[in-house]
Amino acid sequence: MLHKIKVLDFSRVLSGPFCSRMLSDLGAEVVKVESVSGDQTRSGYTFRGEFSCYFTQFNTGKRCISVDYRTEEGIELLKKLAAECDVILENFRPGTMAEMDLSYETIREINPDVIYCSISGFGQTGEYANRPAFADIVHALSGLDYAFGNMDGADGNVPGMPISYADTNTSLNATIAILAALFNRQITGEGQFIDIAMMDCMIACNDTTLQRHVFTGGEKPESDTPGQPPLKMKDGYMAASLLIPFRRVIEAIGRPDLAQDERFSNLTRLTENYPAYRQYVRDWAADITIDKACEIFEEYDVPFGRIQSTAEVMSSPVVRDRNMVVNIDSPEAGEIPVLNTPFRFSGMETGPKNPPSRKGGDNRAVLQDWLGLTDGQVNELAQQKTIV
Question: 6-205+316-383: which CATH topology?
Answer without folding.
Answer: Rossmann fold (3.40.50)
